[in-house]
């Protein structure tokens, strides 16, 4: 399992959440097996999203979809207030 970790500034959470929810089917089709949305403590203008995938290839392909389709379009990503920071991570053995 690998995780696509996304951090980005937003202007308005309800607007952002509506857009995020609108891409639920795209996440499923892209191989997302679990998702978590969080906010840094004390920062209402930032979002942290973790999307879990079975493989790194799925995570990289979905990141490409986000960069070229979703984040490239203000209509598809309302309330996005800056460039997202991303990293794909994998768990390490203890």
Structure description:
The longest helix is centred in the last third of the chain and has 15 residues, at 56-70. Helix content is 33%, strand content 28%. The chain has one domain (2-89): Alpha-Beta Plaits (2-Layer Sandwich), CATH 3.30.70.100. The protein is α+β, with helices and mostly antiparallel strands and 94 residues long. The chain is globular. It has helices at 13-22, 24-29, 56-70; strands at 2-9, 34-38, 46-53, 85-89. It has a four-stranded antiparallel β-sheet, covered by helices on one side. The mean pLDDT is 95.
CATH fold descriptor: Alpha-Beta Plaits
The tally of beta strands, per DSSP, is 4
How many independent structural domains? 1
Spatial gap, N to C terminus: 15 Å
Q: What count of helical segments does DSSP give? A: 3
* CATH architecture assignment: 2-Layer Sandwich
> Approximately what portion of the residues adopt beta-strand conformation?
25-35%
Please state the CA-atom Rg, rounded to the nearest Å. Answer: 13 Å
By CATH reckoning, the class would read Alpha Beta
Describe the main β-sheet briefly.
4 strands, antiparallel
What spatial form do the alpha-carbon principal axes imply? globular
Roughly what percent helix?
A: 25-40%
**Mean pLDDT score, rounded?**
95
Main sheet strand line-up: 2-3-1-4
Q: Which parts are unreliable, with pLDDT below 50 for 5 consecutive residues or more?
A: none
Q: Order of SSEs, N→C?
A: EHHEEHE
Q: By helix and strand content, what is the structural category?
A: alpha+beta
